């Protein structure tokens, strides 16, 4: 059963679901912008905007510096806030379908 019908989903709902998906991916491994781009197919600017706006829904994302260069490192979820991360994992295929991201 699909809880979302793409023709009935607003831009705000897509943005919300995108943040959930990115938080799930980041929580599942060490990712930087390049690896997130490759994994999701999302443009760099979309990723940057979504990551910066995660705090709007209570998800705190930090960039962990891991090397001498400024962009050497990975993102880390400090807290999911009010979001249930298990729910996101359970509905991952529906989220990927809505965002047109192929299942891994």
UniProtKB/TrEMBL annotation:
Record-linked InterPro entries: UCP037266, WH-like_DNA-bd_sf
Pfam families: HTH_43
Name of the protein described by the UniProt record: Winged helix-turn-helix domain-containing protein
């Amino acid at each position: 059963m699909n809880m979302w019908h793409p023709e009935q989903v607003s831009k705000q709902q897509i943005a919300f679901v995108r943040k959930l998906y990115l938080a799930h991916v980041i929580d599942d491994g060490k990712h930087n912008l390049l690896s997130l781009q490759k994994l999701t197919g999302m443009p760099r600017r979309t990723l940057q905007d979504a990551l910066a706006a995660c705090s709007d829904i209570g998800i705190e994302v930090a960039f962990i510096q891991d090397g001498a260069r400024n962009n050497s490192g990975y993102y880390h979820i400090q807290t999911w806030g009010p979001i249930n991360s298990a729910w996101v994992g359970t509905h991952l295929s529906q989220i990927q379908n809505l965002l047109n991201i192929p299942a891994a």
